[in-house]
Amino acid sequence: MKHVTESQQFDLKNIEKIFQLADSLEKNKDLPLKGKIMASLFYEPSTRTRFSFESAMLRLGGNVITTENAREFSSAAKGETIEDTIRIVNKYADVIVLRHFEKGASIRAAAVSKIPVINAGDGTGQHPTQALLDLYTIQKEIGKIDNLKIAFVGDLKNGRTVRSLAYLLGKYNAIEIFFISPKALKIGADIKDYLKRHKISYQELENWNLILGKIDALYQTRIQKERFKTEKEYQKYKGKYVLTMNEVGKIKNKSIIMHPLPRVDEIAVEVDSSPKAAYFKQAEYGLLIRMAILKLLLT
Ligand code: NCD
After folding, report:
1. The overall pTM is greater than 0.90
2. What φ, ψ does residue 74 adopt, rounded to 5°?
């Protein structure tokens, strides 16, 4: 593994290795990345992804240099290309964690980088480390991934986390997916083609009433406000799917509710105390997965 750019690059063996390493890092006291430098280059907002990567690096003994608003405060503001920026950062760091507003940016970055580039979200493209931590959450909280029924809800057109997780699920057996979204925000044809090729059954629905009682996991997402041309357009979809205790009551007792976070209004705060709510745990697992990825790339 040289770079982490998209979910398709992982096979079951890699995934298993990352999960085992993540398990073993829970009680880590070693500093295997002492003397290494991670550059976090963020052109779009982030809380969890940047902090968990930076915390992961520090916990493994490494150091961090960071720009959390690269669109404004890096030389991109002066017109520098991503390729030039990456070539320069190559001289100052040992690994680059990149969040960018353009789909495919991390692949462009990796093409000119001698040090590993990790895609921490590229526009409406992918977010592969989120997908790994999502899958790890399913493994830890449900105990298995095969034979899973999962519903993805919300802005499936613009949300990169669902796209990346769907690619990973395509590698498992007897998965059943329900894509629940307004017609205008349906999951991309590339994902559907991939699932067909991998014999994963899926259905596209506009509401969740019929499936709440069937699923093992509900993966709620935010309507991606920043991808809409106008506020008016965004307001059409905001608040379309709000998970309250009413819906949670219809979900099976052992099932889990996930969300990559940040949430706006799509999960009512009252749901947080339900034993089915796994979204804060999910963010916690992100730290272990990111420690595992950094360790694998740098040692
Ligand atoms: C997600 C993202 O940035 O794609 N956030 C995250 O990394 N946990 C989801 C989102 O912003 O809705």
Report:
1. yes
2. -100, 180
